[in-house]
């Protein structure tokens, strides 16, 4: 007789494992199917995020930022160092250990919460059944009262740049580079491309980023994009906009990259090429033809605002559905769906999902950008405060960037916040909480922020919305 579960989750990334834990916490008999195994056949939990995404990239960004600080930054504090070198294999090993600890932690959480792990590839069958194909080829069919699909995404490959053994790599290969390339090429100036470029530029690579679009970070607030482009350029990232890669040629241990820009056909030669042109939903072998789950025109699983697919009782969350491809979005959808299955009226605020790019300084935002509000014809006011005017930022020698807060001209409600700054990724949570609680700029103005902290810049930006910032001249004409 086949096993029967209240909930079967397919995929153990930040969407799936969080959904499984929440469902189990709510008393639902829960299984999670995961196909990823290591070379010893052990199941790997944590998905893209923990294994080849958020966590390993941040580990390398942190290591290289610390290294970079010894080159110039320390001197500003009066710290003299001898010759500082980077042991790249040791840096990669530290990253691998962090990944191992975290993924192992999920195994522990599954056990502690009573989630049954089914190792193998899951396929949704008609009649709310899931077929699990194990590594040895054998199959098991389980019955599910509810199914949560959390199959995630995989990197997009482009024909002009086929992956080639350590020379042309995607985000997975990029996290395993063990020797600093003298010349690094990156295709795509998106979130992943900029983070990867930053890592190696800090270690001394000459980095060229080729981006097909004319505009830098078109999805970010224009002030954030402008400031970031300027700063990354100063850091040595040669970002070529309007540069579409058309071909590559591997010559010995080098890669020739052909691209076209406004001046016609161009070519550069690099030692390593990272392809970071985006990710696509992963649905290969996931849905039986008659299971009834529909895809949209871009290949994502179609869902409503509460992640219901076209089949009652079957939900889909995370990168495999519409919306930003972000780990926290996937996790929150997982919690929402588990709660809905348990009978709660759960929902998620898609207008309040923060985005962060972990360059240095970091870029972080939530809500609407100025250009979006303009296009929508909303009357808004802007308060901006530069970290150069923050005592704490000066004390830390981390004064690049600003906090930009946007509030509704008529209601004073906060509509968006956009930050460039060393701690932008942490500071943005203040704006997220404020927006989630429906705060006005005045609410933040009346809140006491500790001194001296970089958080005061959020307070000052709120004051600046009405021309009342204290530590920068910003009086508005009345
Ligand atoms: P995934 O994490 O992709 O997990 C899906 C899981 O499902 C995988 O384990 C897969 O093996 C499994 N699976 C798929 N199909 C099946 C099947 N049929 N049967 C069984 N198992 C299956 N996001 C952030 O929020 N912050 C960041 O800083 C950040 N940095 C990133 C850096 C990089 C280099 C990359 C590549 C991504 C980054 N992301 C970041 C994005 C983030 O990793 C994803 O948004 C997130 O992992 C999506 O979670 P998910 O659970 O939907 O899918
Ligand atoms: P993201 O989706 O944020 O990871 O960004 C991927 C980026 O890669 C986008 O900005 C695309 O415009 C860019 N891109 C896609 N194809 C090419 C190409 N052939 N040459 C250069 N850039 C590309």
How would you sum up this structure, described in words?
The protein is of the alpha/beta class and 478 residues long. The chain folds into three domains: 4-55 and 90-155 and 280-348, 3-Layer(bba) Sandwich (FAD/NAD(P)-binding domain), CATH 3.50.50; 168-277, FAD/NAD(P)-binding domain, CATH 3.50.50; 354-464, FAD/NAD-linked reductase, C-terminal dimerisation domain (Enolase-like, domain 1, 2-Layer Sandwich). It is built from 13 helices and 22 strands. Helix 1 runs parallel beside helix 4, helix 1 (16-25) runs parallel beside helix 8 (327-341) and helix 3 (54-76) crosses helix 6 (191-202). The chain is globular. The relative contact order is 0.12. The model has no long low-confidence stretch (mean pLDDT 97). The structure holds flavin-adenine dinucleotide and adenosine monophosphate (AMP). Adenosine monophosphate binds next to helix 6, strand 10 and strand 12.
Task: Give descriptors for this structure.
single chain, 478 residues, alpha/beta, FAD/NAD(P)-binding domain, Enolase-like, domain 1, 5-stranded parallel beta sheet, binds adenosine monophosphate
**Secondary structure tally: strands:** 22
Q: How many DSSP H or I helices?
A: 13
- Kindly report the CATH topology of the largest domain: FAD/NAD(P)-binding domain
Please give the oligomerization state of what you see: single chain
CATH class division of the largest domain: Alpha Beta
Strand content: 25-35%
- Could you say how many structural domains there are in total? 3
Beginning-to-end CA distance, first to last residue: 77 Å
Main sheet properties: 7 strands, mixed
